[in-house]
Amino acid sequence: MADGFFSKLKNRLGKTRTGLVDNVRSVFQGRTALDDELFEQIEEVLIQADLGIDTALSICEEMREAAREQRLSDSDALIEMLKTRLTTILEQGNHTMNWAAPQGPHVTLVAGVNGAGKTTTTGKLASKLSADGRSVILGAADTFRAAAVEQLVVWSERANVPIIKHQEGADPAAVAFDAAEAATARKLDNVIIDTAGRLHNKVNLMEELGKIVRVMQKSIPEAPHEVLLVLDATTGQNGLQQALNFTKLIKVSGIVLTKLDGTAKGGIAFAIQQQLGIPIKFIGVGEGIDDLQPFNPTEFVEALFQA
User: Fold this and answer.
1) Are strands 106-112 and 190-195 parallel, antiparallel or unpaired?
2) Of 130, 132, 142, 232, which residue is the least packed, with the fewest Cβ within 10 Å?
3) Distance between CA 226 and CA 98 in Å, rounded?
């Protein structure tokens, strides 16, 4: 993560920092004893910061035990312990994107609910790959929303990459198949498929994702190599529920956590990692192309704890 983005991240995580780190620090003010009441208040802060009940309880229990065993009386030592524990949670799994397939085009499927930022994420990823010298094709498989196709066309022109699109209402699986076929025929490096936003409780729409995968595999048997689930950080615990439902129907390999700027709910990153065990691969902190960056767990936590 470049220094410029770290500064931006630190700035844009301001509300989450206030709700999480600053509020934990405030619990220690005026206290001389590390008693049960203090840990209960820390627990409450962590839950309110969208870390989730299970994550908050386990962190506080570890802090309580460490304070007892190590006879800690210093709040700074406990703050440092919290920082280490949060980093450990986020470090689980492989956060690196491998954009190359063993043979043939590499396929990435982008999924999520309406409004999470799937189409924008798809466009930004295509732009980054193209800028890195990789040949990319986009598949506009969100055929339910005309604006999504138009938006992706703009991104394809901006990134100077081809796009496969059908008329509005067409079979999304057919679009994905044609994109995979075109990529193979043209010997392109990457295919990125933008899928329709779907409510996690609409079974027929969710099952359509499975159809897209099955149909694409007729062209590229290993496809998709990556399934990125785009979650809107401002939805907090609702985003976690969305992710749980998606993972029941499709194997998600990574999370893209968008809209971290301006929300106090960035703590959801820890709940996602702890409860789903799916690594966050990218984070978004704004509208610009450079506001979407590969996720670095250590620097994310560092940005939260630096004033």
Assistant:
1) parallel
2) 132
3) 9
Distance CA 251, CA 210 (A): 10
List the alpha helices (DSSP H) in the chain.
Answer: 3-12, 14-17, 23-28, 36-48, 53-69, 75-91, 118-131, 146-159, 172-185, 203-216, 237-249, 268-276, 297-305
Q: How far apart are CA 247 and CA 242, in angstroms?
A: 9
DSSP characters for 148-176? HHHHHHHHHHHHT--EE---TT--HHHHH
Provide the phi-psi class of 262: left if phi over 0, else alpha when psi is between -120 and 50, else beta. left
Predicted confidence (pLDDT) per residue in 98-137, tens digit: 999 999 999 999 998 888 999 999 999 999 999 999 999 9
What is the predicted pLDDT for the residue at 115? 86
If you count them, how many residues does the chain have? 307
Could you report the per-residue pLDDT of 5-38, keeping only the tens digit for each?
Answer: 888 999 999 999 999 999 999 998 877 778 889 8
Q: What percent of the chain has pLDDT over 90?
A: 68
CA separation, residue 152 to residues 68, 119, 149, 173 (Å): 56, 6, 5, 17
Q: How deeply is 187 buried, as exposed, middle or buried, from its count of CB atoms within 10 A (0-12, 13-18, 19+)?
A: exposed
Predicted TM-score (pTM) of this structure: 0.93
